[in-house]
Design goal:
The protein is α/β, with parallel strands linked by helices and about 260 residues long. The chain contains 10 helices and 7 strands. The chain has a single domain, classed as NAD(P)-binding Rossmann-like Domain (Rossmann fold, 3-Layer(aba) Sandwich), CATH 3.40.50. It has a 7-stranded parallel beta sheet, with helices on both faces.
Amino acid sequence: MTEQTISKLLDLSGKVAIVTGAAGLLGAAMSRALAEAGATVAVTSRDMERAATFAATLPGRGHVGFSLAQDDSMAIPALVDTVVERLGRVDVLVNNAYGGTAPSIDTASAEDFNQAYHTGVTAYFLLAREVARHLRSRGASGSIINIASMYGVVASYPQAYTGFDINSPPNYHALKGGLVHLTRHLAIYWAPDRVRVNAISPGPFPSPHVRENQPEFVAKLIERTPMKRMGEPEELKGLVVLLASDASSYITGQNILVDGGWTAW
């Protein structure tokens, strides 16, 4: 392998990346990072207009918005085919979209689990497999990045949620744990094809709405975080570019936590 400079290794120019749930809190930061590194980004949202509007805000040219409902399994192969038709190829997939409910342990139903698992594991697998098939058909290397959670690795602290109109849903914990292991499984099977599969597990990254309306809850999370602050979406940018790029060409099957030290306790 010819030695390359770090700027060349991190350069995504000429690559096409699909980011699902791209207009959301974390998806927007990761999409912007990939575009800033030179990639053409195919952004998806359940709302086509939202996807197109967001795509137009990204730096660079050629970014396109697509509509995708994670609960529509039949739409997934069509999405990959359409992206290839419009943009010529796919090199990177960031599986980020999620559409599950947020029940408590006492109220969670079978349907809550079915919906969460389908949108957060099944759809991720189907998209990853379509992208892997496309990469194999080209004889090309590529990167699949699944967005999991620290709650796929550790349990939450019940005391942090007591007394607040917010909970830590059991279906969310279950699916994120499954996604972390699915990542390892796919990585092993697709490694000979040079298709790398890794997961990013964010820690406490509360939305602006939660920060503004639940400050006491956020303070409880800060107490549990060694760095004594919440994560900012921009703090995922470097890692997503690293995993999408040739700078991580020997990294696969890993789950990287971005949690301010939470899981180091």
